[in-house]
Write a structure and sequence with these properties.
IPExxxVDY_fam; single chain; 159 residues; IPExxxVDY family protein
Length: 159
């Protein structure tokens, strides 16, 4: 029997820039502010980003700039779902209380509210300019760049 070996040295790895945003606003408000201050045209995608059989769902905004060949994605890092709490069945009264569970798209960065992913074919976006514009938005607490290669759960950012 012949043995075939596949070598994946030339595997294409999409390079992108990742900016973490700390902001307590709703997802549509932060998308509006990014459109206003950074001159983007982010729009909510038809489908959210779902993981683990709809256990968690994250809002996703997207815009592809045709002139500069840059794809902008704003994705929420936090998903809160209300679930039934576990209680003992041996009680006299049934208590149907709800528990609010929190899930994170990137668990290594639990305090980050949103990620701005910038995928570009030509290196045309200046991170320092984007960060200074983000810092100028009064509703954003802080923002900083994240190295995507150091994230263990970077597969969650493939969309």
């Amino acid at each position: 029997m012949a043995l075939h070996k596949l070598i994946l040295d030339d595997f294409y790895d999409e390079s992108y820039k990742l900016i973490a945003i700390h902001c307590r606003l709703e997802d549509y408000r932060i998308a509006y502010l990014l459109n206003k201050y950074i001159n983007l045209k982010l729009r909510r995608t038809e489908n959210d980003l779902d993981f683990k059989y709809l256990e968690s769902s994250y809002s996703l905004f997207e815009w592809y700039n045709d002139t500069e060949y840059v794809k902008w994605n704003l994705v929420s890092n936090v998903c809160q779902k209300e679930e039934d709490s576990l209680y003992s069945s041996g009680t006299l009264f049934s208590d149907n209380s709800k528990v609010l569970k929190t899930f994170h798209l990137i668990p290594e960065y639990k305090k980050v509210d949103f990620f701005l992913k910038i995928s570009e074919e030509i290196q045309s976006v200046d991170e320092k300019t984007i960060l200074s514009r983000l810092q100028a938005i009064p509703q954003i607490i802080t923002s900083y760049t994240v190295d995507p290669l150091k994230i263990k759960s970077k597969d969650n950012l493939i969309f």
